[in-house]
Specification:
Low-confidence stretches: none
Structural class: alpha+beta
Strand order of the largest sheet: 1-2-3-4-7-5-6
Helix content: 25-40%
Number of helices: 5
Strand content: 15-25%
Mean pLDDT: 93
Distance between the termini: 67 Å
Order of helices and strands: HHEEEEHEEHEH
Radius of gyration: 18 Å
Largest sheet: 7 strands, antiparallel
Number of domains: 1
């Protein structure tokens, strides 16, 4: 076995791993703040969620290996069932980005597809990413997964088995992340609500 200079530096570094633990704990605390902002919006919005959607607590969890890097996720509100998905996922991806993504499929998509089709053009100037991947569980921003929403992609809404619309935030925006995520969530609620009230 031969180690590169970088690898030798890594195995000799006694500060990184303790610092990483502290950072991940702080990100979890930040996501608790995000959850509280979202909870306030949920309680004030009057939006009618699909049956069995968790709008009380959601779930914060972390992992070590999304494409070889650590992550923290908040799913809130959250519905995963055998027949329906309606989940708003906030994600921290180590070294890369924060993101907020609405993921809708199954019965929930049947309920909201018309609203999305009618109103999605209102998002064209907001740097929203549209998922073109056949795998709904990828969150990177490579072109094989997400492309910026445009008029050509709107036509895919009718054909997709699931819809994911995502907003990407720079790591440097962490101080205002609760506001940014909540603002995007309010935009999504408006997108889903308009046609349903017509």
């Amino acid at each position: 076995m031969i180690l590169t200079e970088n690898e030798k530096n890594i195995i000799a570094d006694t500060d990184f791993l303790p610092s990483k633990i502290v950072v991940m704990d702080k990100i979890r605390s930040l996501f608790s703040e995000v959850r509280q902002e979202l909870r306030n919006t949920i309680n004030e919005s009057g939006f009618i969620y699909p049956v069995e959607t968790d709008i009380a607590n959601g779930k914060i969890f972390k992992g070590e290996n999304y494409n070889s890097l650590p992550y923290v996720i908040l799913d809130y509100p959250k519905l995963y069932s055998s027949t329906s998905t309606f989940t708003f996922r906030t994600m921290f991806y180590w070294g890369c980005f924060f993101s907020a993504t609405i993921h809708i499929s199954g019965e929930s998509l049947n309920k909201y597809r018309t609203a999305i089709k009618k109103n999605i053009s209102s998002l064209l100037d907001d740097q929203i990413y549209f998922c073109v991947n056949d795998n709904p569980w990828e969150y990177h921003y490579e072109k094989s997964n997400y492309v910026l929403l445009n008029n050509k992609k709107i036509g895919l809404i009718e054909k997709r088995d699931f819809i994911k619309l995502s907003k990407k935030f720079d790591l440097e925006q962490y101080k205002i992340l609760p506001y940014l995520v909540d603002n995007y969530y309010q935009t999504i609620l408006k997108l889903l609500s308009l046609t349903l009230n017509d």
